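Extended Data, panel c. Modelled sequence:
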Amino acid sequence: MPKSKRVGPLQGRDLISLAQQLARDAERHAILSASLASQADRLMIAGLRQLDLKQTAGSTPRPRAVA
């Protein structure tokens, strides 16, 4: 949004334009936030699966050698 020096209070059209810009920015941020949250969920699930696999593999009893 271009910066301009204003002498007086904002007029009706200026307020509407500003409100529209803020709404577009909020929507853009919401989409980005949802995308980041989704990516975080996928990474968390992948990490938990890896930990679960390591724990399962580590707790499996090994066969004993017969002497």
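Helices lie at 12-59. This feature is highlighted in the accompanying rendering.
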